[in-house]
Give the backbone structure.
Amino acid sequence: MRALPWLVRPPIIAAMLQAIRSRASGIVVQILFGILILTFALWGIGDIFRGRTPDASVATVGDIKISPDEVSQALRQQLDNMRRSANFAPTPEQIKDLGLLDTTLQSVIDRHLLDLEAARLGLAITDAAVRQEIENNPAFRGASGAFDRGVYLQTLAANQLGDQQYEALLREDLIRARLVEPVIEGASPPTELVDTLWRARNERRIAEAVLLPPKSVGDVAAPDQAALEKFYDAHKNQFMEPERRVFTVALLDPAELAAAIKIPDDRLAAEYKERSGEFRAPEKRDLQQILVADDAKLKAVQAALAAGGDFAQVARDVAGESDDTLKLGLLTRGDLPDPLAQAAFALKPGDVSQPVKDPFGWHIFKLVSVVPEQVQPFAQVKDKLAQELAQGEAADDAAKTANAIDDALAGGTKFNDLVAKFNLKPVKISDVYADGHDAQGKEAALPPPAGDILKTAFATAAGAMSDLKDAPNQGFYLVSVDSVTPSAPQPLVQIRDRVTASVEAEERETRLAKLADGVADAVKGGQSLDDAAALHGLKPFTTKPLTRIGGDNELPPALVAKLFSAKPGEAVSASAGDQGYVVAVVRDMLPPDPAQEAIQKDAIARQVAPAMQTDMLDQYERALRGRFPVPVDSAALNRIL
């Protein structure tokens, strides 16, 4: 079975679990640019995992035994990710050298440690919390930007996951998050550390500088043939014609499959009935509220209202409320806790409720208006349902076809046979460079994902075929490289002008560097920068306050770095590219700008905080290991390979 693209876990969970010894790759759901990969079976590395003793435990976490199969599965996932993202399938020896087996085991241990601690504390997550997390997940949003159950089910189906299975995995992650959140909450670096970093990073220096433009060294004579040939021979790598490739892309596009799928009306009606809540906008009520904390003020408010006082005026004058707290706006019944919802939704427009007490005080509601419940009829959403169901079936069919293609690839089926057998769509790309342009400089007509296809084509050997790769919208693609025109030096006769310009530029650069060194040496010898520059018809300028991290364009970064290592009055120089060379002298050393202190310190604190959180999580993990011992059988672990 293929490694399947999975779902995006809540960001806070991913960040926290990633921080645990930087081993999140082995936890159930792994984040990749937001997309997670869940691997359930072996792909292309079967020989690595044979010959182990199936009953031996690799490690024990508390009373949980970690089997070789569990570690193997996590390792397969890691290796599959490496193979797909970097076209790199390590050998068993490389797995050992890279420490992949050890880090994979540690990630499995981390997961079990959190699960045991959660069980000890009796932590649980409600169905409502799981549902809210799913609805907030960007992976399940439709074209409108809101949660789309059709997209949700389609994504699960494409990955051969049921909604109950996914929700169980998500519930586990949310429980682990409840454990980790308090550990890192409020982690912030000490004031002394932030102050020290702030002073070092934001110290400012003012320099006096002079630009030596290329014309300062006069004209450079055109090189003769011998000089051109010498330079060309020494710098052929600068004049290479890039490699070009001819390849064919075979596409498996669920959108094309979906166009041919017809969903029966009775199934559409059943889907509409099952998802009826999705097409119903609940009743909303525009409410005003008076909230008072004590009985005495409550009596005053009731008296004012009983005397015919305007609700809003009483809220302001008697209860002391502002318009922000008075106007609750449009709310559904679910937006209010019971018994507040009961009181508010029993009113008719213009009615005022009896006081209702909760821990915050006494609530009195006035109903301004009602927006009735709205239901989209079946006829209005029928086409949308048909499209979603067809997309779901197409994604499922594409995933099954992809598994069959993988099996055929493993059996040695040729590219053209795969295209014919599975009705793939071939697209021929001729003479394209790695940047996506052809020999005429035109952009090649690559299907999406163009960048990934190019990367795959240039990572596949001539005459060979790539693995099956994931494409957008649950699609897949294969690349067959037909021919490769290797990179080669362009003949000197064709690029004579380019070589001539390069020789002249090198000579000009050498002269400018020598001139800049001479000016700097003159300043070091006691001459002022003004006088040294005047000898060449140039005039220095004074910079604005400079910082180590730059942010201005007055001086090249290399020169700024030298200025922060130089002493006052010391001259330094650096290239300014096409503009020439710059010689500069430190004139003033200033403390950080006090007007920027708060902003800069806050930025430093936010940069340092993640490292502190990681340290705290390391300590938390060690504490969990003290509560739940973790003996490891190294011999059993090594037998996995």
Notes: The CA atoms of residues 252 and 423 lie 8 Å apart.
